Amino acid sequence: GAVVSQHPSWVICKSGTSVKIECRSLDFQATTMFWYRQFPKQSLMLMATSNEGSKATYEQGVEKDKFLINHASLTLSTLTVTSAHPEDSSFYICSARLPSGTDTQYFGPGTRLTVL
Amino acid sequence: AQSVTQPDIHITVSEGASLELRCNYSYGATPYLFWYVQSPGQGLQLLLKYFSGDTLVQGIKGFEAEFKRSQSSFNLRKPSVHWSDAAEYFCAVGSYTGTASKLTFGTGTRLQVTL
Fold first, then answer.
1. Shortest CA distance to B83 belongs to which of B49, B39, B29, B33?
2. In this complex, which of B99, B101, B106 lies closest to A105 when CB atoms are compared?
3. Testing the interface with A: which of B44, B47, B89, B96 to mutate, by most A Cβ within 10 A?
4. pLDDT by residue (tens digit) across A52-94?
5. pLDDT under 50: residue ranges of chain B
6. What is the CATH T-level fold of the domain B3-114, as seen in this structure?
């Protein structure tokens, strides 16, 4: 149980284009999902908290207009990197929190984004 | 604000030897503590967690961790390491804000296992 998937696993795009990454909770409903960014050999940095049916909460320093988050259903959150540039190249990982009563996040397998 | 320190960046152990990965946290209240493992190019897998109660928690793959409030530590242990345990290990502290838990991760410890 508590499986989270991400799509795509990896993506290469040209500078200036937009890329959408999907995060799905496969066997549970997640009112809250999280998006992290991980640079090579570094830890995970929380980018934003995605709440179903409401606006995402972004961490300080994360550009809302650049990293668009949509959480339209209880099993799907999307992260769109708009007008991507090489410095946006990174490993993006999402997680989903089980419904209330527990406080554990389950992580997706990650998406490797390379911007040329 | 909460923080997590993993003082060991890289640890090498022989297969069959015991393992202890250190984790120290800073948090104003009773923390939620987690250990995750990440294989190269993969997401994070939850090994174990501590919310309350028994301070020695058992996890998957034979791992355990002990919460020591007096030392602000949550060290991960395994009596006998297998080659497949080679990976990156992250300790995390969670802060519950009423609607969601925010995880703060340590910088990770890379475990290498020699045969």
1. B39
2. B101
3. B44
4. 888 899 999 999 999 999 988 889 999 999 999 999 999 999 9
5. none
6. Immunoglobulin-like (2.60.40)
